[in-house]
């Protein structure tokens, strides 16, 4: 009897399941009925039970008319558009939020699930797809962090990762790791490291970088620890989606006033002599203008050339050009990352008022040996790199040289044909990876020689070396010790007028030690702090007569020394998902010291040797004065939505070193001068506000920034200042105020066949030197345009890729003529002509316009080949416009006549052959 009851129960259950099939067809005719009433009625007619939280459906009304529809489809239609989903569970229906019910582990095979209700094909939910994608064998690399012995807990731990290139083993700067479960991630620094805080567990992560294959991985975190990932380069002909590897490349998240230039852009821009120049590219960015064609120096947001500092692997470069600005002082082929800070300057940087140009070079291939270079009619360059110990250490050697004298000999002018102009440079990089440390050594030397017939001779050089030792103390703390040395020197001989012919040499030495720490807390803070010590030694040299006819007196300009110690701390914190704040403070103490003799002057008189009252003597290593400089830095980034942001920044900067030059450019014989007893360090405050927006569908980036900068103790030189004839610089320099303000607009397009950018800047730069007396004021104490007051600057770069092998690039540049002081009249006193000049910088030279064009043709794109070649054809100054570099005046027959001086007044065509070992995509 018991057995019969069991059999009967089983049969009833089977019949019950058959009768409550969610796929059973029924007739439905409902008009605006409550969902709960609809479900009760379905259960009465079909026997299928429906479970849900009534609070989710209390506002849902059902209107449905169908003569034959499955129960499952009826419910699915009733909840369409509500954000709810229906799933089958033991022949009943469950209504859920946020995805369907997963009732079994998905198969590792790639198969399509059949809908159990009506036999239609069903697409897996997002969570199911992610589950399969993250755990499918052979599809995603599994990364294990920490030790499983610690177990899985609920306390957040710190994970440190390093991302490198598969082909070269070099660290990747700005690669991203995105954690899908956390909807957040991290970005690698200049050494390829990233850090993130997370709870132990399993995560689906994705590594991305522009031009590299996306790499999905399964990250299993047991405890704090480290991991390493390699990414593979991919060749993409046309990119419809822009991937921002570096948060500082994304216009909505990068710091205010930060510009990052990709090496791809540097390679595409037209150049005059076929030489890639990252500094010429930077001139096309908003807020940055060139001081002139064929010259060295940049003006950033209304500042002078000496208010910018250029670092290459932390080595300062005091003259960034070869051949008076036509070529960069370093080979752009070895540059890996290039950033310009002109708005928010991180607290770890100091010493200049306007901007920081930070250049990081490649470390060399850790996998295999490689060679690449280029040849054009003027220069040739070659780079060799490879592993010292495979996957552990590498070297890189780069060299360039010019051979331009043959061009000068073709010119009929005997002064030019008998001249000589040449340069060379070499850079060496050595890198070694230890278990917890990385050692990097970099050194470079550049040399220039220019002789203008038998009239003038210049030769100058930049030399520098840096040693960087980075150590990982833990997953959340890394430190770096840097030792830096640099020297800039020149020698000049001026024989233009034999009675005043002279020769002069000069050197400035820079020695620096820095200790920097990156500390990522378990919260949302990213701390940076450190200390530095800097020693500058200047030998201003001795001016000597040259030749038997010279009547020039010997002048010893003297030597100077100064030290600067600094401490800094900064914190970047994500306060809210839409609010990021970066705060920093830097404190520096600058001390010039002896031996030095300082003259004092009678009260209320000019600082002139005629009014010397006494002298102060400072012995060897005795402090002359103490200058302390606290600096505040702040940046606020407010995300208005996914594609937009508003940013506010405030900067305080100090500068203790200046150029002694009464022209606007950095000339080969430019002297640098340290702040001293009279010449005080300059101080600036800058505030900027910007609106930034992406338009992802078209690949557009737009930005609009306004800025205001005020400077105290701004140095301005007296009319007719001569720094080779007077040892007392205080008699040649006045200090006052400067203010600059403007608007910067930018439109960029990336990732398409047609790309590039438009940049427009409207700005003013005004100076005021008012000491209360005529002898310590300029322009009568009234405000006047600075030498680099250029109100309008418009630059356009357009790139068009016809295919992988053929691309074109064109540049349009326009800017207002810079200010100039004109002579108005000549009058005679006792027969001696005296020129009367206008107010300081009242007029402007004519405006500047230039158009350039280049075409790049790649060789064949075969994957396996020994050498790949490409050709770049460039046309500089396509329209042949004679842009004035300056205006000069001559008194002729009792009249003052003006003449325009143009450096490049004709189109200049250049063909460059570029070669490298390996295929099209190799470095």
- Summing up helix and strand content along with how strands pair, one would put the structural category as mainly beta
Mean pLDDT: 83
CATH architecture grouping of the largest domain: Beta Barrel
* Percentage of residues in DSSP E strands: over 45%
Gross geometry: elongated
Low-confidence stretches: 1-18, 107-122, 130-138, 236-249
CATH class of the largest domain: Mainly Beta
* Number of E strands: 57
Give me a quick take on this structure:
With 923 residues, this protein is mainly beta. Helix content is 8%, strand content 52%. The strands form 13 sheets. The protein has a 22-stranded antiparallel β-barrel.
Describe this structure in words.
The strands form 13 sheets. This protein has a 22-stranded antiparallel barrel. It has a five-stranded mixed β-sheet with strand order 6-12-11-8-9, with helices on one face. 8% of the residues lie in helices and 52% in strands. Residues 1-18, 107-122, 130-138 and 236-249 have low confidence and may be disordered. With 923 residues, it is mainly β. The chain folds into three domains: 20-109, Phage tail protein beta-alpha-beta fold (3-Layer(bab) Sandwich); 140-231, Sandwich (Immunoglobulin-like); 258-917, Maltoporin, Chain A (Beta Barrel), CATH 2.40.170.20.
Provide the fold topology.
Elements: H1 2-19, E1 25-34, H2 35-46, E2 50-51, H3 54-57, E3 61-70, H4 71-78, E4 84-89, E5 92-97, H5 126-135, E6 141-145, E7 157-165, E8 176-179, E9 184-187, E10 193-198, E11 201-208, E12 215-221, E13 225-231, E14 258-260, H6 263-268, H7 278-282, E15 288-290, E16 298-300, E17 308-312, E18 315-316, E19 321-322, E20 327-328, E21 335-341, E22 355-361, E23 370-375, E24 379-389, E25 393-402, H8 405-408, H9 414-417, E26 420-433, E27 437-452, E28 456-474, E29 477-494, E30 502-520, E31 525-539, E32 542-545, E33 555-556, E34 559-576, E35 579-593, E36 596-601, E37 612-618, E38 627-641, E39 644-655, E40 657-660, E41 671-674, E42 682-695, E43 700-717, E44 733-749, E45 754-768, E46 784-785, E47 792-801, E48 806-815, E49 819-820, E50 823-829, E51 832-837, E52 843-844, E53 848-858, E54 867-876, E55 884-892, E56 895-902, E57 908-917
Parallel strand pairs: 2-5, 6-12, 7-13, 17-22
Antiparallel strand pairs: 1-3, 4-5, 7-10, 8-9, 8-11, 11-12, 14-21, 15-16, 17-18, 19-20, 21-22, 23-24, 23-57, 24-25, 25-26, 26-27, 27-28, 28-29, 29-30, 30-31, 30-32, 31-34, 32-33, 34-35, 35-38, 36-37, 38-39, 39-42, 40-41, 42-43, 43-44, 44-45, 45-46, 45-47, 47-48, 48-53, 49-52, 50-51, 53-54, 54-57, ...
